[in-house]
Amino acid sequence: MTVLRRIYGRIFGPIPLRRLAGTHALSTCADAFFAVSLAGSLFFNVSIGAARPRVIGYLFATLVPFVVLAPLVGPLIDRFGRARRLVAASTCLGRGILCLFAAGDLRNLLVYPEAFGILVLEKAYSVTKSALVPTLVDRNADLVGANSRLARISTVAGLVGGGIAIGVLTLGNASQVLRIASLVYFTAAGVALTIPPDDPTRLPPAALERAELRSPKIRYAAGAMTVLRGAIGFLVFLVAFELKRTGAPTWFFAVIAGVSVTGGLVGTVASPPLRRRMRRDEPLLSVALATAALVSLAAAIHADAASIAVAVFAIALTASVGRQGFDSILQRDAPSAARGRSFARFETVFQLVWVLGALAAVVLRPSTRTGLAVLGIVFVPTLITFLVGSRRPRGRLDPHAQTTA
To answer: How far apart, in whole angstroms, are the C-alpha atoms of residue 185 and residue 180?
Structure first.
């Protein structure tokens, strides 16, 4: 029993972080069940001409949940303040209930609003999780390690959940997958209730909140992360349509997807030691941009299958490292009582840029060589801007503002 506890602690981290980590593992696993249950013929079973409008429709559909995330969900999460763990539990409970309804409505139109509700609650949970992390670590220096651990758990849990869900779907049907997803969501809600409550914090005045979120460190970090997110969206669909155009076998798509997932996973492993070595969060973004620029330009020179795979791996890795750095900067510098709306705002921007990057690849149809060269060229000025801008002084804020009514 002691050995199992040590293994559990090694994977999920110290108490109380492991309670959020357990919730996150279950939530991500259930999300994978939900995604598999609704997976349809979007890309592989149609011609490249028919695939483009379907993919464009899918890209716009991914933006819909964010319409309510920033203006409604973020402020609602902050309004609960000390009860954010209850918000996390509620998002899991709500997704479980909607999965049960969707299991019976797969053949009628009711499944669409139910799926939309699940997606909104999924994003709300993600924002709540990010807002909870700083309350569960002892020092700001531990934020990168905690964020990386949660991202690593999310990747592994998603892969395990997706694999099991595909097996259930093969042997049964989508309704059974959704019913199992609901059970996993309900379990996640129960685990979320064990997360320690946060100390109550008053919302800062709106002027102070805006000033803190516009500090150079947050602003330039957000700009760097925006470019990395847009690059991921662009590269995924650039490579996917290039492979489809050249008639690559389906298994090669799986290889590229596996390379991308592996790159993201390696990024979560590399981020904590990199943070300890550099002793600050900002260099994570500098290293990410510099590496992405070098690899993109080098891959553009050759543009063969091996170099494309290396580019996908490297940019997935650098985006993962950059994300750990950005999340930690925002958790460290944003007003503690306004973390929900802060993360909701930036998540919306990042998703919009990811979609725009993907649309650029789908609509403009550049060659792989051209696309990689463009990415490399974009990364270089972004790196220079971030290095110069993030060194600007924070500026003086009213020290009495947070206690003002």
So the answer is: 9
User: Residue 400: what are its φ and ψ, rounded to 5°?
Assistant: -95, 0
**Encoded tokens for 217:** 């460190």
Model pLDDT for residues 180-205, shown as the tens digit of each residue: 999 999 999 999 999 887 665 555 55
**Whether the model pTM is above 0.90:** no
Is the domain spanning 2-192 CATH 1.20.1530? The answer is: no
Give the distance from CA 186 to its chain's centroid: 22
- Residues 63, 285, 324: CA angle, nearest 5 degrees: 65
**How far is Cα 255 from Cα 305, in angstroms, rounded to an integer?**
11
Q: CA nearest 51: which of 370, 272, 361, 401?
A: 361
User: Mind listing the pLDDT tens digit for each residue in 286-304?
Assistant: 999 999 999 999 999 987 8
Find out whether the peptide bond into 16 is cis, omega within 30 degrees of 0: yes
Supply the pLDDT for residue 403. 36
Measure the CA–CA gap between 376 and 129, rounded to whole angstroms.
Answer: 33
Indicate the domain borders of the chain: 2-192, 206-391
The type of residue at 81 is G
Structure tokens at 402: 């947070």
| CA 404/CA 203 separation, integer angstroms | 10
Angle at the Cα of 317 from the Cα atoms of 384 and 284, rounded to 5 degrees: 45
Q: How far apart are CA 138 and CA 114, in angstroms?
A: 39
**CA distance to 59, 291, 356, per residue, from 360 (Å):** 11, 23, 6
Count of beta carbons in the 10 Å neighbourhood of residue 286: 18
How far is it, in rounded angstroms, from Cα 375 to Cα 192? 40
Contacts of 144 (CB under 8 A, 6+ apart): 271, 272, 275, 281, 284, 324, 325, 328
pLDDT digits (tens, 9 = 90+) for 310-323: 999 999 999 999 99
Instruction: Enter the CATH code of domain 206-391.
Output: 1.20.1250.20
User: Is 209 in contact with 338 (CB distance < 8 Å)?
Assistant: yes
- All residues at 6 or more sequence positions from 384 whose CB lies less than 8 Å from its CB, including other chains: none
CB 285 within 8 A of CB 223: no
Residues in the chain: 405
- Residues 381-398, buried b or exposed e (16+ Cβ, 10 A)? ebbeebbeebeeeeeeee
User: What whole-number distance in Å separates Cα of residue 288 and Cα of residue 271?
Assistant: 10
Measured distance CA(322)–CA(316) in Å, rounded: 10
